[in-house]
Amino acid sequence: MVEKKNSYSLELVGILYKNLGIILLYLLWFFTDGSGVGFFFILFLTIMMLLRWRFEKLKWTLLIDQAACIAISFFWYEGIYGLGLIAFDTILLKFPVAILPALIYALYNFNDYFLLIVIAQSLFVGTALLGWKLETEKAVYQRDEDSKKRYELESMKDDLLVANVQVVRMAEISERARIAREIHDNAGHEIIAAYMSLQVVEGMLDDPKQCKEMFSESMKRLESGIEKIRESVHNLAPLTTVGVQYLQKLCDEFTLCPINIEVHGDTSKVPIYLWSILEPCLKEALTNIVRHSDAKNVHVALDVTPYIVRLSVENDGVKGDIKAPGIGLRNLKQRAAAVGGNISADTSKGFRLICVLPIE
Question: What stretches pass through the bilayer (predicted)?
């Protein structure tokens, strides 16, 4: 916004300088000549400057303007001071070499000190405005680059969040496949073998001795299969507490005030990647309660439906207004958005945080 304002100010100063030059030329014409030649010459300069302002590619016309100034000086000498406006344009249009004819003429008429002063002043003002313009353009370019990089970082962050969810889902699918494979390769073989042995036993009921041996073999295979199932279940058990048990643990370890936690619905339907959002949400809510509230009671509710899971954390007191969400809450909102959910916080009556996530 500041750069845009500077750009308008720069253009305004340039227009004012040119208008002042045109006005001074008309005053010179009025007091020194008054003929139609000077009037139409100044009108010609004005039109040419407007054309160059509208079409920057016409900067080569600066040479035509200088030729016109030098030519008009033979009929109305004061018209030569129009070279000051042309010198100003050569700098702003980044075509300084075009001022050479005017400089050569001014040096040739060295006795006209005022002409040298006018050209030097225009070159100085033009250079100052050009420097201002270049600095403004540089600031605008830097701002655009920063915005572009910030957008790319935000986009990359969103992509990473989505990729993280996909990785968790793929890990869950891979784990299911591993469980099925382990049960099939280990316990499944033993149970099938025991089943086949029992079928053989059924046909050997007339021979008690062989029947007893086959039955014992079948029992051993069943025991082996059961043991392998137990081992698989033990190996599949997580090393750390996850899910609703972890939420309960966080509430139990909270010492500021009592927490009442309610759970409704089948929590087994909540995918593991959603727990990775729900758990830090509860942590963030409890952290905000410690920092910003004089809570006497905290209520935590987890509601699971066939389509969504909703976590609500609220307390009965706030120390002061929370003007803006912290980094932790902003990051959680982005993570929730990556899975199609949302997180909202309210401090109108105590502190309340609500997280709603879809169950796919």
Answer: 12-31, 37-53, 60-77, 83-106, 113-132
Picking from 302, 287, 317, the residue whose alpha carbon sits closest to that of residue 355 is 302
Half-sphere exposure of 180 (CA within 13 A, CB side): 6
Partners of 302 in beta bridges: 263, 311
SS3 332: helix
The whole-angstrom separation of Cα 315 and Cα 349 is 9
Which helix (H) or strand (E) element contains residue 358? strand 352-358
The pLDDT tens digits of the residues spanning 4-43 come to 555 557 778 878 888 888 888 888 888 886 677 888 888 8
Nearest Cα neighbor of 89 from 113, 43, 125, 117 is 125
Phi then psi dihedrals of residue 237, to 5 deg: -65, 135
In this structure, what token pair is assigned to residue 198? 């029992």
Q: How many CA atoms lie within 13 A of 64 on its CB side?
A: 12
DSSP β-bridge partners for residue 261: 300
- For residue 321, give the DSSP letter: -
For the question of whether the overall pTM of this predicted structure is more than 0.70, the answer is no
Q: What angle do CA 325, 159, 165 make, to 5 degrees?
A: 85
Domain 244-358: give its CATH superfamily: Histidine kinase-like ATPase, C-terminal domain (3.30.565.10)
Name residue 21's amino acid: G
229-276 residue pLDDT tens: 676 666 655 544 568 888 888 888 888 788 888 999 888 888 877 888
Please check whether residue 353 is in contact with residue 284, taking contact to mean a CB–CB distance below 8 angstroms. Answer: yes
Cβ neighbourhood burial of 182 (10 Å; 0-12, 13-18, 19+): middle
Q: Give the pair of three-digit tokens for residue 82.
A: 């129009």
Q: Which amino acid is at 296?
A: K
Distance between alpha carbon 360 and the CA centroid of its chain, in Å? 27
Nearest Cα residue to 357 out of 300, 311, 301: 311
Rounded to 5°, the CA angle 18-20-24 comes to: 120
For the chain, which residues make up each domain, given as ranges? 1-111, 244-358
Contact, 105 vs 98, CB < 8 A? no
